[in-house]
From TrEMBL:
UniProt-recorded name of the protein: Ig-like domain-containing protein
Matches recorded under Pfam families: V-set
Domain of life of the native organism: Eukaryota
Domain Ig-like: start-end pairs: 1-73
Residues annotated as transmembrane: none
Organism: Danionella cerebrum
Length: 82
């Protein structure tokens, strides 16, 4: 999951169900399947490996810039492939 950063970013975070997965480079999730892929001026991307039905739901990327906060939402749908 990826979100664009933009200019003058001061803080970034990925959240799911009110839980913080990443705050900048700091991993807050205890789930070993969640990892940081990219964090730079342009992009903030995390990856969840081996997704299952419990991973379904709304994920939010929150970006704080010098001028205003901004959020990007991704709704993940996991299909049971059995």
């Amino acid at each position: 999951m990826s979100c664009s950063q933009g200019d003058f970013v001061t803080h970034t975070a990925w959240l799911n169900r009110s839980s913080i997965l990443y705050a900048g480079e700091d991993k807050w999730s205890v789930d070993s399947r969640v990892s940081l892929v990219t964090l730079n001026q342009d992009e903030f991307t995390i990856k969840i490996e081996n997704v299952d039905l419990t991973d379904e739901g709304l994920y939010i990327c929150a970006v704080q810039t010098r001028s205003r906060p901004r959020t990007t939402s991704v709704h993940v749908i996991v299909q049971d492939m059995q």
